[in-house]
Protein: Rieske domain-containing protein
Organism: Pseudarthrobacter polychromogenes
Amino acid sequence: MKPLPALELVTRLEDAEWLDPISKKVRKVVKRAIRPKWARDVLHGVPIGHPVHPLAVQVPMGAWISAAVLDALPGNDKASALLIGVGTGAAVPSAVAGFTDWTQLHPQQQRVGLVHAAANITATGLYAASLVARARGSRGGGKVLAYLGLAVVGAGGFLGGHLTYRQAAGVNHSEEIPHRFPSGWQPLAPLSELPDGKLHKIVVAEIPLLVYREGDAVSVLSDVCSHLSGPLHEGKIKGGRLQDRVNQNGGPGDGGDPCVVCPWHGSTFSLRTGEVQAGPATAKQPLFKTRTSGGMVEVCLPGAE
Ligand code: FES
């Protein structure tokens, strides 16, 4: 099947470098506006394990589409205005979450994301204008503005789909690792050849693994950052030591959970569990079980022995 011409246009948008200076300014504003790290993590969706933005947009989209249906039928002016009001209000937190994610994307993704955001802001403005027109008694004008808003937000949604499904923004870039890694214990390297106290990359069955050794303790995660595939072995180590005793609740010891910090956007993952300690990543890193047999370290996916 032949792709729509619109797809060609959006693909060209990915290379529209003239958008970069605008992206730079918008990035600065967003980073200044949302400073606390905990707030950014909540907006990225770290606590729920996936981005908040696609979830949050359900409210304005649902309200606006429902209003469009009611506007097509007689006698629903009040209900329709109420739904448009709800959708317009709900668009704000959804945009804040989207902009927070957008600041941590590749330039090609940011170009498409910028136009996606511009379309959605324009649509929100049209819906606000529709409310004003309705309040002034112009029912016809209010409906036209709302339908225009729906058309523009639809175009914005097309760009959002491209950003997520073609450009893989917001998806888990480590998801396929457990499907590709062979089952059973696989040889990693002799323990004596693993550098002590340093992040190290070893490829097993064509899968790049992040290896971190402290004495006899070895931690192995997927080396591909779940956020946007950054190489974790080029990152930094942070927190306590692997061999620190865990506390009574099974949590990190006094020195804190030993973590790796991604060199690209600073996502932080526990070397003990692979869990996200700080975003923008929202999905944990696949963690491998390790054992040493005859001086050789072996790795295996949990449950795949
Ligand atoms: S690639 Fe973005 S934090 Fe790792």
About this structure: The pocket of FE2/S2 (inorganic) cluster is lined by residues 225, 227-230, 262, 264-267, 280-281 (CB under 6 Å).
